[in-house]
Amino acid sequence: MALHQSLVLEFPGRVECVVHYSMRVLVGTADGRLVLFDTRKDPNKPVGVHELPHKKRIQQILVVPHIRMVIVLANNTVTVHSATDLELVSSEFHLAKDVTHLSVNQRGPPHFRVCAASATKLQLFQFEAKEKRYKYLRELAIADPPEVVGWYRNKLIVGSRRGYALINDKTAEALSINLNVNTTPMVKLLPNEEIVVSAMDALGVFLLFTGEPVQRNSIAWTKAPVAIEYTSPYLVSMIPQKGIDVHSMQDGSLVQSIALPRITAMFGNGMKWDMEPRTGGDSEDVIVVAALTATGSTSIFKVEQMPMEQQVQELLDRGRIEEASDLMKKSISSLNADKQKSRMRRFHRQVAITLLKRCEFNAAVEFIYRSGMDPREWLSFFPDLVSPSFAYEPTILTPDVLPRGSSASPDWNSVLAALLKDNAGNLAPELVANGHAKLYTKSSKALLKCLEMIKKHSSRDRSSSREGMFATPPRSRSTSRESEFSAAHSSGGSFHRAPVLSRAAATVSSSFPKDIQRSEAVDTALLRLYIMHESMSEIAALLTTIDHQGEGAHCDLGSSQALLMHHHLYFELGLLFERHGRVLDALDVYARMGSGEYIQNPLEDSTSGAQAAVDLLLTVEDTSLVLYHSVRSSIHQPV
């Protein structure tokens, strides 16, 4: 639900027109009365009343609050009144005869020009600040009697039974718009110099002031509206014998209907002058409607947008991410940059949760990343991907936010089962058809992508020859190791193997505090995900990447060692030992590869094992250790 209604006042009689300005409500009656109420005071006690002598119905009221005036059309004549007490104000509108419609130029100050339309001409008036009155400006001849007029800058858009035309307000040059009306014409000016007009049977079409159509979905009404108002990002239409229809400007869809079958009038003020949409929380951005009651009185309602957070969440629940984003940006536009950033991060977190619940995992990844959410929030639902020492309880993805199904602890299999059972109606049919197993695979791949993004954000690759963190072209392990060693030393020696240098790296780490537990969780999970999805070439890159603080991967040693051994990834096991400063263990693995005891790739293992040992020994300062392992490596080095 986008809008909600609240009763402002009960009026004894039929209301033909209603407007709202500066916390005031002005009604025009069927018997020619103007009655003003101040909603800050007693809403049932008028603060001003003016009775027109002809006692004919009020046809239209224009509000120009900047000059504290209201312009009234009744009995086809125009009068000007003070906006605060309804006293008559002198003007030259008496020159306009048989007026059927009024329109104010949305360009606004300084002249606040008004068009008084009659069957054969458009008479233009402008406010003269020195005299504080409206004076006649000029008139334009027209071919067809207008029923509605809109005016912005130097263009008037005129709707008649025969169609719409754009008219230059100086030359009267007219440009016909090729639209089939077939109904009562209706015009509403919108932000970004757009116009919506009613066409054919009950269709809202968007145009530019050039007459060209806007690439936007049309609005489909159940019946031609008699009034259209704008409150960003919605169009609100008054439908006779029905009430109010609320459509999205984003895609033209019907968002909400409010039943008011005896509605008689509607007014909105969702734009400032020059057609700028009002920002969120603007007290002037309200819709006011009048509806007859069974007793013959009129109820005046204020129709306002729901609290922004509630609207945003409802849009997210319906999968309307872009529309929710536009609404959120509007609501925070008046905040300072820091507050805007904080609110958008919270919004991105909402989007991420919504997309996870809709099983749109790839889409969720971007918002998890942008929200700054701790990756362990989602990772904690995958116990097979974390180390035995992992201990993290989600503070965002809690059971009241993300259903856990039959499992008391975070478990993604249980979450998927609950979503497929209880939330299937909100899932795309093809996702439901995928079934549990495929959704789990998709989610694990999305998690991999998410962790890579987070890792990339906090790390830099030590090799200047690679374009990106995981962009290493396929090479043999021996060639790769040789290039990595050269790159490391050419970039200032940022890659260290020796234990003494590992201790130096630890000193760097203590100088730059870092959440090691989080890093270990991410790196350990990445290692397991690469193995799960058979992305073996990425494991070496993971284990040899240096981050901004001079640190490498923080994979859990015990569980990762067992996993690499189980999958016969001995070269990567050696890298893991190196990363943890266990040089002797790494040399032992490389020696076993060279001897053929550890077989990972029969075509390369003997060569790559020996080469890896040599590369590592070049970084070791213990001469006896270097000599011993050099001899051992040479024994197994093929001739």
TrEMBL record:
Protein name, entry field: CNH domain-containing protein
Annotated GO biological process: autophagy; endosomal vesicle fusion; protein transport
Primary localization class, coarse: cytoplasm
The keyword Cytoplasm belongs to this UniProt entry's keyword annotation: yes
Pfam families, per database record: CNH (PF00780), Vps39_1 (PF10366)
UniProt KW keywords: Cytoplasm, Protein transport, Transport
Top-rank lineage group of the source organism: Eukaryota
Domain named CNH: residues: 12-273
Cell location: Cytoplasm
GO cellular component, one term: cytoplasm
SUPFAM superfamilies from the UniProt entry: WD40 repeat-like
